[in-house]
């Protein structure tokens, strides 16, 4: 058992866990969420994803200070998600969304720092950049879902339901500026955040590519002593 535990621990502290996190996010966002419903199995699937997200990202977070705050951001959403399995409460959904947004924001910030730290460009940096992009769409999705609940469903038009998958679809349409127009933000705050997400979706790839290319050129040049 100690050998197995050491092997698992070594895996999560290596850069290959970026690959696992990226696969988990992509599979959940583009595969699992679109088929979710409001039944118990869908809620368990959402809980399972959050557990995988915690498992693959915990080593990066716990290397930082403020461990009690980090553990709180991890523990509370997990408890709220478990409670959602047994209770139908809008406030539970709001609290879950808020804490996951905080957690994903912290995770994105740390991964972004690691992506742009000194060194040559490798697969880890590219994967980290994509992870942050996917996390951005997920963060805005949960923010939109919270706004919808707090505004009693008046903030958006064209939704086919109140499930998080509706807002994830809208979020990535906005982030990638697809602009299908089937879902429209109505409230001022929803419109403002939609504009902000669209702006991030345009600027992030442009700034990211420019930064990574400049880093690659810099570290390919012979360094003067």
Description:
With 225 residues, the chain is an all-alpha fold. The protein has a single domain (2-220), classed as Helix Hairpins. 75% of the residues lie in helices and 2% in strands. It is built from eight helices and two strands; from the N terminus they run ααααααβαβα. It has helices at residues 2-13, 16-32, 40-62, 67-84, 90-115, 123-150, 164-175, 188-220; strands at residues 156-157, 184-185. It has a two-stranded antiparallel ribbon with strand order 1-2. Helix 4 (67-84) crosses helix 5 (90-115) and helix 6 runs antiparallel to helix 8 (188-220).
Total beta-strand segments: 2
How do the SSEs run, as a string of H and E? HHHHHHEHEH
Question: Helical percent range?
Answer: over 70%
Strand content: under 5%
Shape: globular
List keywords for this structure.
single chain; about 220 residues; mainly alpha; Helix Hairpins; two-stranded antiparallel sheet; 8 helices; 2 strands
Tell me the layout of helices and strands.
Elements: H1 2-13, H2 16-32, H3 40-62, H4 67-84, H5 90-115, H6 123-150, E1 156-157, H7 164-175, E2 184-185, H8 188-220
Antiparallel strand pairs: 1-2
Helix pairs in contact: 2-3, 2-6, 3-4, 4-5, 5-6, 6-7, 6-8
């Amino acid at each position: 058992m100690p050998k197995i535990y050491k092997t698992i621990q070594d895996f999560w502290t290596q850069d290959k866990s970026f690959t696992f996190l990226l696969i988990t996010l992509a599979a959940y966002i583009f595969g699992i969420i679109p088929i979710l419903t409001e039944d118990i199995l869908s809620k368990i699937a959402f809980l399972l994803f959050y557990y995988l997200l915690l498992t693959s990202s915990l080593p990066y977070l716990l290397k930082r200070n403020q461990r009690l705050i980090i553990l709180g951001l991890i523990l509370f959403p997990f408890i709220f998600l478990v409670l959602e399995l047994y209770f139908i409460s809008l406030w539970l959904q709001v609290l879950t969304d808020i804490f996951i947004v905080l957690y994903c924001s912290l995770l994105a910030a740390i991964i972004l720092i690691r992506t742009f730290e000194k060194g040559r460009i490798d697969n880890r940096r590219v994967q980290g950049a994509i992870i942050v992009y996917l996390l951005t769409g997920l963060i805005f999705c949960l923010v939109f879902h919270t706004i919808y609940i707090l505004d009693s469903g008046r903030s958006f038009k064209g939704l086919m339901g109140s499930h998080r998958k509706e807002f994830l679809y809208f979020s990535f349409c906005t982030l990638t500026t697809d602009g299908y127009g089937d879902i429209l933000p109505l409230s001022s705050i929803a419109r403002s955040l939609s504009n902000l997400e669209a702006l991030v979706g345009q600027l992030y790839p442009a700034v990211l590519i420019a930064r990574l290319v400049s880093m690659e050129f810099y570290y390919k040049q012979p360094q003067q002593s």
